[in-house]
Design brief:
The protein is of the alpha+beta class. 57% of the residues lie in helices and 15% in strands.
Length: 109
């Protein structure tokens, strides 16, 4: 199965969506994306951790140290109020863009 690369801006939206349910650490976020996408999307550490740092810097996420399921120290990320607003805005934009692309792909002219 072909692995797909995230379009520009999509990684942030997907991470925000995954964290909407509950805080998680980087590896957990990557695994959740992989699981929910049914093995279509994979997030590499080299993309995920810089994206998480950018989102913390923008105020969309906050982070704190905790203990993971396997008893290791891990940085947990959670959505801020600003992050929830950003997610809502990004979802609306994404849905409009996806609908427009679907219209183009199904247009018979």
């Amino acid at each position: 199965m072909t692995k797909h690369i995230f379009p520009q801006g999509a990684l942030e939206m997907v991470v925000l969506r995954v964290l909407r349910a509950e805080p998680n650490h980087g590896w957990g976020i990557a695994q959740k994306i992989h699981l929910i996408s049914r093995d279509v999307l994979r997030v590499e550490e080299g993309s995920l951790y810089p994206a998480l740092a950018r989102m913390v810097q923008k105020g969309w996420l906050k982070s704190e140290w905790g203990t993971s399921e396997n008893n290791r120290r891990a940085k947990y990320y959670s959505l801020t109020r600003l992050g929830r607003k950003r997610l809502e805005s990004e979802q609306e934009n994404w849905q409009a863009m996806a609908a427009a692309i679907a219209d183009i792909l199904t247009n018979e002219s």
